[in-house]
Amino acid sequence: xSKIQTGEKIDRMMKKRYFAIPILAIALHFLLSNLLxxxxxxxxxxxxxxxxxxxxxxxxxxxxxxxxxLILVFFTLYKLLWRKDISEPRTATNFKDVLGSLIVGxxxxxxSGLWIMxxxxxxxxxxxxxxGAENIAGGNAFGTFMIAVIAAPVxxxxxxxxxxxxxxxxxxxxxxAILISSVLFGVYHxxxxxxxxxxxxxxxxxxxxxxxxx
Length: 214
What we know:
By secondary structure, the protein is mainly alpha-helical. It has helices spanning about 5-45, 50-55, 60-80, 95-120, 125-135, 140-170, 175-185, 190-210. The chain is globular.
């Protein structure tokens, strides 16, 4: 075969690889998070024989530990995947960009809030979402903050922007990669209301990542 044919074959193989990475990464997150929840529960209840009620009251420590492991795993995977792109230009973190990102985030939350208020046919989904929010960290304020505000978003950004979006950019234009990765981000929340605003938030985060590489 000619060098051109060989190059085209390698290019097709690389595209298939980068197409598979998002699917495998999302599947890994789903399986690993559920496995870790199961192992922590069995360890605490069956090995250390902690009473179930006491476990429920302090379960947020186990959840924080699980998210710490997930952050370590996916950040390591992120570094391994893109170690050859280390010279890629990226914007240094600065106050202006952080403030702009927060304004965009709160703006999308506001728009989503208005949409949710008007979506009367979806009230069951809203109730399910609220019930799920109440169950985070057993309702503990510190645990909820650490999990819902800090740990979960860090894992999601590493996974959906750092791995999924960046992989898709290897074989798709920016607009398509941002849109598809954002829809996947929304669908992964498994609730139609959450899926809608998570998709919007994913688009905003994707645009920011595409512009700043950070």
